[in-house]
């Protein structure tokens, strides 16, 4: 029996449409000039896209793929920016968006891996709960966020997806069993941020808080030092803000809101009772531009955080090509000139706030991979932690993932090429974890 007919017998949707295959075979790695060159569209293309609609169908598809030695690359919304959903060995791209159930169960939300975080958040809020963390790509899937994401709105209080965000997960292994298993607690580690190489997440249970009222607060400043003077105080509020993003004038006009392009911008998602304190602190160094006590307005701020300002700048100024480095550490506040000096040409900082200090997307002109890597060493030398978004290797819990995959994917068919002994461009630190 051919692979296609075996899959069709399972009742899953199977497509070999070339346009669709091209689309699902690449992700947002196009944000990286290194990955643009290494993973151009059309170089690595799946043979089939399979769209299951139930957990058991996922397990059944994996059993067929195991029997026929066919690689399977799980995929959510394809917003990952490390090329980590690229099907290097062809085979099946498993589009999980059909698994989209969402249920609030007391203090947690149980969601099908393909449920969008917009929906998860909407359902949680309607039930009086706040999802701990979601990325600036709120249209991405919860399975993709757990499988490939890391931080976002909520990170100041709750850190990363590896810090208790996931309560349990139902996993489909690639071991020929056609079965599912559930993991929780410490057992979850090898399944979080490991790009599906240890198993396909079919359902995840994530943590929530009682819903709070959130407000979007915009401030503006005449200098980076003034912006930082406020940014660095925001972890001391009585309720941690959900987000605190800052941008230089070079990035401000590219943001999809009307802000003074000559001033440094601060955007805070603040809990309602702390708004007066936030605005008072902003006024000591700059101006309060706007306060919107409306949840939908806070989503606008989320959509201008993390990698998004880099993307907006790349769109506004496609040449010369720009790259970014994910970074963290107090030199971003204390010595921005030393940070900028790590790369030639104009270097821009998009600031975020973590629990114990600042993070930033450092944006510079691309002059080649060797130059980019050399700058990472210079950043480390001045005490900045770096993570490279220019490589597709599993770089969190690598040894544990390898050990787990020996059991859950003995033939190495899950998302091939992403799990190696030692990632060549080693990540050193995970974004959201400040040293
Ligand atoms: C402009 C921009 C902004 C971004 N902002 C953020 C941000 O704020 N925070 C952040 O953490 N990330 C961010 N990202 C990265 C990305 O959006 C997140 O990783 C996202 O949550 C991925 O979800 P997805 O559904 O698109 O997953 P995909 O891109 O489809 O997949 C991501 C990885 O997970 C694997 N995977 C997908 N589904 C599953 C599953 N069910 N089981 C196992 N493995 C699976 C894939 O194989 C792939 O390796 C950003 C990216 C861009 C382009």
UniProtKB/TrEMBL annotation:
List residues of the FAD-binding PCMH-type domain: 42-211
Q: Which PROSITE patterns match?
A: FAD_PCMH
A GO BP term, please? lactate catabolic process
- Gene3D superfamilies, per database record: 3.30.465.10
Q: Could you name the domain of life of the organism this protein comes from?
A: Bacteria
Q: Please state the span of the N-terminal signal peptide per the UniProt entry.
A: none
Q: Pfam families attached here? A: FAD_binding_4
MF terms (GO), sorted A to Z: D-lactate dehydrogenase (cytochrome) activity; D-lactate dehydrogenase (NAD+) activity; FAD binding
Q: What is this protein called?
A: FAD/FMN-containing dehydrogenase
Q: Which organism is it from?
A: Pseudonocardia oroxyli
């Amino acid at each position: 029996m051919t692979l296609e007919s075996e899959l069709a017998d399972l009742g899953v949707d199977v497509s070999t449409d070339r346009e669709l295959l091209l689309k699902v075979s690449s992700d947002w790695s196009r944000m990286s000039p290194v990955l643009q060159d290494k993973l151009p569209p059309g170089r690595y293309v799946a043979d089939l896209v399979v769209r299951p609609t139930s957990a058991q169908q996922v397990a059944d598809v994996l059993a067929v793929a195991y029997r026929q030695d066919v690689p399977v690359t799980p995929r959510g919304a394809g917003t990952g920016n490390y090329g980590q959903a690229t099907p290097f060995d062809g085979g099946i791209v498993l589009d999980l968006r059909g698994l989209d159930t969402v249920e609030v169960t007391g203090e947690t939300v149980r969601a099908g891996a393909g449920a969008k975080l917009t929906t998860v958040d909407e359902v949680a809020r309607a039930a009086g709960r706040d999802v701990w963390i979601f990325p600036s790509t709120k249209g991405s899937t919860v399975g993709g966020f757990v499988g490939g994401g890391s931080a976002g709105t909520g990170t100041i209080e709750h850190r990363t997806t590896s810090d208790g965000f996931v309560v349990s997960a139902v996993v489909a292994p690639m071991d020929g069993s056609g079965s599912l298993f559930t993991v929780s607690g410490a057992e979850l580690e090898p399944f979080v941020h490991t790009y599906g190489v240890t198993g396909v997440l079919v359902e995840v249970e994530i943590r929530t808080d009682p819903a709070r009222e959130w407000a979007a607060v915009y401030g503006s400043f005449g200098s980076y030092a003034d912006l930082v003077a406020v940014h660095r105080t925001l972890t001391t509020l009585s309720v941690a803000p959900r987000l605190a993003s800052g941008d230089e004038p070079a990035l401000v006009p590219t943001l999809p809101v009307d802000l003074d392009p000559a001033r440094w911008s601060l955007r805070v998602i603040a809990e309602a009772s702390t708004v007066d304190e936030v605005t008072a602190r902003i006024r000591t160094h700059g101006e309060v531009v706007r306060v919107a006590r409306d949840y939908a307005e806070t989503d606008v701020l989320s959509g201008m955080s993390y990698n998004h300002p880099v993307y907006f700048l790349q769109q506004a100024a496609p040449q010369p090509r720009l790259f970014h480095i994910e970074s963290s550490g107090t030199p971003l506040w204390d010595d921005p000139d030393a940070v900028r000096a790590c790369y030639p040409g104009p270097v821009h900082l998009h600031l975020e706030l973590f629990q114990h200090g600042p993070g930033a997307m450092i944006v510079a002109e691309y002059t080649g991979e060797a130059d980019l890597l050399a700058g990472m060493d210079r950043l480390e030398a001045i005490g900045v932690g770096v993570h490279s978004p220019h490589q597709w290797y599993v770089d969190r819990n690598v040894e544990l993932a390898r050990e787990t995959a020996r059991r859950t994917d003995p033939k190495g068919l899950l998302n091939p090429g992403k799990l190696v002994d030692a990632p060549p461009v080693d990540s050193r630190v995970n974004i959201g974890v400040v040293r």
